[in-house]
Design goal:
The chain contains six helices and six strands. The protein has two domains: about 30 residues; about 180 residues, Alpha-D-Glucose-1,6-Bisphosphate, Chain A, domain 4, CATH 3.30.530.20. By secondary structure, it is of the alpha+beta class. The chain has a six-stranded antiparallel β-sheet with strand order 1-6-5-4-3-2.
């Protein structure tokens, strides 16, 4: 008699966790920092992944111009400048750069932004429109877009969108599920660390950039 009761309790607990994730956590993590307008708008690269299973829009305001922010994004990747996130996890213990690295600025479509220890496997660069937008990913299964928009006060709204179509019967589902549950923590850390690094050397500065609607610090 105890076994069925234990199983019933376990099932109910799992259902409660699933409900909380789908109704509370997932909606929050799919739009961290983004306004309603940013969530609804079309971004460059949206057409590359049709009917995505995972569609996350995150945003932050940085006290710098798009031209000042672009080089920091252009140099990301393992064996490059890192990912500005949790270095022990996504950069294999190497500290992400705290300066612009001139020799890493020649980014072009087809380049790989490394995620493996040797930097040879990772995310392909799909398209670049300096200093406004860049698109990474492997269509039609995944895309990662960045949009840099100047604001009236001289700051820049940085909007990033990850779209991923899950293939449930493919070995790639393991990576997709990692994105589902862990992407928010890596992305949030990346955006906050980018802001800290960029505003430390920007002419615009942090005095305005850290007080914008939609930001969560």
């Amino acid at each position: 008699m105890e076994v069925p009761v234990a199983i019933a309790v376990l099932v109910l607990a799992l259902l409660a966790i699933a409900f909380a994730y789908l109704r509370l956590f997932r909606p929050w993590q799919l739009r961290w920092g983004a306004t309603d307008a940013e969530l609804a708008r079309q971004l460059p690269g949206d057409d590359l992944v049709v009917a995505p299973t995972f569609n996350a829009t995150r945003a932050i305001t940085i006290g710098a111009s798009p031209a000042e922010i672009w080089p920091w994004l252009a140099q990301v990747g393992v064996t490059r400048a890192g990912w500005y996130s949790y270095d022990r996890l996504d950069n294999f213990g190497r500290e992400s750069a705290r300066r612009i690295v001139p020799e890493l600025q020649d980014l072009k479509p087809g380049d790989i932004l490394g995620m493996s220890p040797d930097g040879k496997k990772g995310i392909p660069v799909h398209a670049l429109d300096e200093p406004h937008s860049m698109i990474w990913g492997s269509p039609p299964d995944s895309s990662w877009s960045w949009l840099l928009e100047t604001q009236p006060d001289g700051t820049t709204r940085v909007i990033t969108r990850v779209r991923n179509r899950y293939r449930w019967l493919s070995p790639s589902i393991a990576f997709s599920l990692l994105i589902e549950f862990a992407d928010i923590w890596m992305m949030r850390r990346m955006l906050l660390n980018l802001r800290e690094r960029i505003e430390a050397v920007s002419d615009v500065g942090p005095q305005i950039g850290q007080r914008q609607v939609g930001d969560v610090a």
